[in-house]
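Subject: complex prediction, re-run

Hi both,

The earlier run crashed halfway through, so I resubmitted it with identical inputs.
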Amino acid sequence: MIIRKIVIKNFLCYFGTKTFEFENGLNVILGDNGEGKTKFFEAIYWLFNGGKNFASMVSAKALKETNPDDKFDVSVLMEVEQYASIKSIQRSFTVLKTEKDYNISNSRIIGVEETKDGERIRMDGEKLLDIVLPPEIRKYSLFKGESELNIFNNKDALNILVNSFSSAKHYDKYLAQGASLKKKAEAAVDKESRHNSKKQTQYKNLENEIVRLHKGREKIQELLNISESERQTLEMHIEESERYVDNAESLETINNRIKDINSKIRQEESVIKENYTTYLFDDNWILTNFENVHRTFAEKIKKLQSDRRKLQSDFDREEGIKAGKEKLKKEIIEGLTPLPVGVPAKAYMEEMLDAEYCTVCNRPAKKGTPSYNYIQKRLKEYLDSLTPKIKEQQEKKVLFKHDYTRMLFKLSSTHEDTLATLREKKSEIKEIFEFNATRKEAIKKLKERLQLEIKDREKIIGSSSIGENKLANILKNYSSWQRDINSTNNNLRNLESDLKQISKELEAKIKQKEEIDIDAASSFLIETRNILRNIEVIFRDTKEVKYDEFITQLEKKSNLMFQKINADDFTGKIVFKKRNIGGKSNITIELQENGKIFYSPNQSLVTSMHMGILFAISELASELKEESFPMIFDAPTSSFGETKTKDFLNLVYQTGKQRIILFYDFISKENDVQSIKPEFEEVKRHKAFWLKRQRPFDKNDLSTINTEISSI
Amino acid sequence: MDSLFNRWKTKIPNYSSEFKFLFDRLSSKGGTEGAKKISLGKHFSTNYELYIYAFFLGLYEEEYSPIPKDKKKLKFSHHIQHWGSKSNKIGRKDFSRIQEYIFTALVAKTDINLIDLDKGIISEKEVIQELLLTLEAYTNGGLMLIKEKLEDNPNYYLQPTSFLDMIMVNIR
Amino acid sequence: MARKDDIFRSFMEHDILRSKYEIKQEDIPKTVREAEQSEIKIVKTIALIVKELESSKTISDVALHKKVTQFLNNAI
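This time it finished cleanly. Structure:
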């Protein structure tokens, strides 16, 4: 699509009808500040985007020169050539002048298409505008000033670009569907699991734990992102200030030494383990002083043992005596004389009974006689006395009913054995303290060295050649930035290990839960879930691949343009960084030189960068739509300076695409007389215009303002 | 016949409510081990750890101080037999054999007639009761020493060696 | 090549199909139509989803889920 002409009528400083006829290719509009460039741009902006602030658009001069009750139109018209037909779109409204004021009415947008035969067909203006300049293209066709060239300061920029120019846009719905299908399949498994599982409470607990851990992990991830961006900001500051340091190399050497010392310190610190209170228990250090107590115990037990033994044997003896006494008592009570000394033994008595003869009294003792019975009785008594009666045993007394003390004896001897290891504890403790003390000494020395290096570093920064005040500031900030970045790095490390830890816990819980799932839910549900899980991964990864393809393409094209614009200067390149924050993809643009981020480029470099990107987008759009579209810029290269501007314009000229660019360069003023600088002749262009306010005019009276256009 | 030790283990000893604040301040229930804990002054992972510590402190320093009758007695939830068992703590070891040492210390320091126990003149229950009183008395003494230290210097416990130092006065 | 076939094939390039499901390169269908006849469940499921999402009529989440589970139900 090519813009053939733009007609502005009674719009701000354009009184009456003013026509711009454009060529395909580079069209340059020159105008000093205030002469009407910006108003031209605003007219186009209104045409493209609409706007109802009509009162602010009316030409003051037109208003003045119209009589009350008369009306006039305010309009902006664009005529384009697209696909061999001419189309025009006009936005306008009518102004009716009254005595003191004016009324606005009839705001409209009219579209007209002229066929090859010359037939003019009216169309819906908005629809025609969309055909002539599709909305996604329109976004990238109009740029006011240098500051608006940065399209990536908008978080949604990437998504807008992808949606307009990349096939990656088709993959969003797969992502959504994949996630939703997976979610449903997982819910089905969970539901059945929960219902069937014998371990219902455990399952519920696991589910809750998993949710909690997920949330915890998200929080940590958020904190990580924040810390990371803090770190980058600090790095940027540090880099900026290091530019003022003359002796950059020495600084780098010192910084490396400082880094090395810090890591040595960290290493030493990491081996020091001072969980002394825990060692009291886990390594039994608390028993180091126990020996005396054990002595007391062992002695007590020893005495207990001997007392016990003594008591027991006294008791046994007494019991023995008692038993003897008892027996004696019993025999006396029962009137039985014990066998006197010399009484024949059992064998003799049996012999006597057999022989029926008493050898003691030396007379016969026939069976049935008293003598015989007497011997028999004594023999019986004798035999009885030998076998203890059960009844007596039951009445036998016991001294110690329990034996609690046996265990105490055992304890005493076991602990006696372990006393040796207790004694070793003392040397163990001593060793650990010595170890820690040595490490601490090492750390102290390292920290002393560190201080010296830091002092040296400050000297180097101090000896740089910039003004004293600025230097003092930088020095002050530099040290604190270095400290801050250290603590931020520590923070990052801690967060990363926390993240690892919580991810591990989460994985473990999920694994536990899935073990129950496999038990409790039907295999069909589980297989479905697994398939849908994999499908979600495939959809997600493929979308990322497509996004990355687009970004790579964009980056390549941008750098091609960028290098042309910057032909003699900067040797770096534009890098597109993709970041996923909370599920949304975001793009930031960096300038890199030799693989390192180039912080704080000057405005000229920034503008070149943005221009490179914009031209790259324009190329992508052309490829996609198989049609090219014009771009309109208002003073885009103020920071370039005249020479670079000339080169830039030549570059644009060579692309051959229609670009309408407004400049205030190339105009010189002498005593309010303007003229075009001769350098402008060297600028290759297809068409050039010069905007000038009609003179004389009163800058305080808008009704005297009228911009005239002349071709150059 | 259950051994005296086994029966004793099933009990939970008391501590004086006067020292509840020490348990709250110095022991943390659960959470990870490490330097982070000590910087908050929480040296002990569980309440019974502090209890054990206070007992040994009182024992070595010979601070025998029974809980006064007018003070309310509190107990926590772990029976002695669980003290030091490894459970799920990562990075900790099992120290349940310290229970034996506590027991022998109590037997050594308590005035009980073990002969009478074996004879059956006094009951197992009575003996265990006496042992527990000894346990409570030394612990109470130990807790008092800790409390006094804290009053003299509230930040004393922020160092990693504080409890080690207190109990190892003779060694270091 | 219709867009749905381009999209389908971009999914088939994912490593999971080779590593986890051990599908050989030559067994991967080149069009959605072909894939609908596939014996490999995950391939056919993806073909199903692509066919529905690229058709001119929009399908609701619930309806798509139903179609997918119905197919897997019969296949597993």
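The longest strand of chain A covers residues 85-97.

- K.
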